[in-house]
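Q: How would the structure tokens look for this protein?
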Amino acid sequence: MTQTLIIEPDGYSSRAIFEYEKMGPVFQGEIENSLKSEISLLVVRLAHIIDKDFLVQFPSLIAIATPTTGLTHIDTSYCVKRNIKVFSLRDCKENITRITSTSELTFGLIINLLRMITPAHNNVCAKSDWNRYQYQSRQLSTLTLGLIGFGRIGRHVASYANAFGMHVMAFDPFIDQEVFIEANVKSVDLNTLLKKSDIVSMHASWNSNSECIIGKTELSLMKHSALLINTARGALIDESEAVSALKKGKLTGIAVDVLEDEHSAKSLSESDIVLAAKEGLNVIVTPHIGGCTVDAMHITEEVLAKFVVSQLSEWDG
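A: Here is the predicted structure in token form.
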């Protein structure tokens, strides 16, 4: 019998909970310490840091399920030492192709940043300033979008960009050329993408062994008029260097839904990107809301629950 604890139960899919109940009792939210020793499956979202100090409370834990593609909120190295299996959406990629929430947010950030919608709105409301010429911008159909990473989200964003008449190129050495051709996207190396793109959008995966993709050298290759978008993982870009490039006029705008230290104790007030936004630079920051829609969360919770139950049932069998 598997006893499950869903530690962030608010709005959790009832269908997903029903799946977990097939294996045994399901607890939700805070539970007494005496019950923690009986929990064998922990279901988490993104509100908690699942590190050693957290996991020692659950001595009988055999698995963690997280309906996310990223695992930066979980100490996977410690899980390996404890022989705790971590299940995520990476295990269910073929069943989440219809999840478009992060892709939609990405394109929303692109348009917002390009057309300076937020500062224009704020200026009208705060200063009653109706001067449209200070927000003169560009038309999407005249621009080139460069995608770093061409998985599910990158391909969704490419399809939106194609619909707007943009020229789209992508860098992803792990994707077959036929995929680029079918998507009407030009496959290029990273340096070419950085040099030719008006907008660079991050969609690469990241783990503890990954390296920063956009640093000082890469930023120096980009057009001074370029925009940088990151809805993937904060550590993919050197945030300090990106802000420095923005302040020096070597970059025109930054929009992020993720921060490098979003899961650490570091205060948001110390973030270079947050500080740049507060200074009134062309920066947009959202609190990792890419996949935070009822539709996406319920679909992913249900898909993952079915997968986890099937896997744990095989173990018991």
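The longest helix spans residues 294-316.

The chain is about 40% helix and 15% strand.

Upvote if useful.
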